[in-house]
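Aspartate/methionine/tyrosine aminotransferase
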Amino acid sequence: MNRMNRLYEAIDVSVFERMSQAAARHDAVNLGQGFPDFGWPDAILEEAAREVTGGSNQYPPSRGIPALRQTVADHYRRHYGHDLTPDHVVVTSGATEALAVIAQALVSPGDEVIIFTPAFDAYEPMVRRAGGTPVEVKLDAPDFRIDRARLEQAVGPRCRAIILNNPHNPTGRLFDREELMAVAEVAEAHDLIVVSDEVWEHILFGEEDFIPFASLPDMAARTIKCGSAGKIFSLTGWKVGWLVADPDLASIAARAHQFTTFATPPNLQAAVAKGLGQDDWIAPMQDGFRSSRDRMLRGLEQAGYRAISPAGTYFMTVDLAASGIAADDETFARRAVEEAGVAVIPMSPFYIDDPDRHMIRLCFAKRDATLDAGLAALERAARFF
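Predicted structure tokens:
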């Protein structure tokens, strides 16, 4: 019990949840937690409603309903040319559960897992809960490029895997082929599994190309991909995700999944299968989020902030120091929500041991009125410093 207490004392409440609670408490505009207020295809909601009343509401197969597993395989064959079958796919209760079961399946006590930081804040506690040790490889602002020499130096004798997030949360970067090949070559040289969190794969704005990690030479057999219907369809509360891997790896993860959530609501799975089988919603969705991104960038520039334009995701990074603001990220975030009426996310919690404290993350996946209210509040916040 003491060991468990120590473990969970080390895992704080998510910074996203804390800032959303603060936004509600102070009646502030929430540009913190990454959920959109537009962007989903209405047909998917209608299909889910039909499935609730007319479809199955009992236990589905643990690995996912056959229709969704087949549709996921078909989707990636259509978009990326991947040769997949349903045996490559395990449906999970969101990509976060996929990441959790991968950690449980891959990591033994004492194993090390490389995490590029800044990183999605679930990676570190998932590795620790599995008994592993996260090893931080820092991406330096403002470019956030993968440094091969730094990655090589981080690989020790107990290293088991690399977690790669592309497109990248929190920065919105798309890693280029040179960077991905560096990860691939290190993984090959040291016999590492690459857990490729690609949940933002369709939230792209057209300036750069997304390269699925499994499409790189010899990487399909050592890659476990995580995908998310919640991100693809802007329905983050649905928590329908999947992992895609070599069938042997997928089966190992499926056994961990069986004793985690066992299965995911069958009606939502069926609705996702229908939506994922079509592509006509992708371009309008991307156009909408690109417009919101550009509106946020223009507003921030007018307010005197220095922002880093993202190539994908719902997020962009603001460099407080480059904007002439001397406060650290936590101080800025606290005063912004309490005094200016806008919730933002400090970047320092996205690191492990060596945080940068001069940046914040904003979610721009909001309607124009929400963005404009948030920008007005950020303009007020800038006057405090």
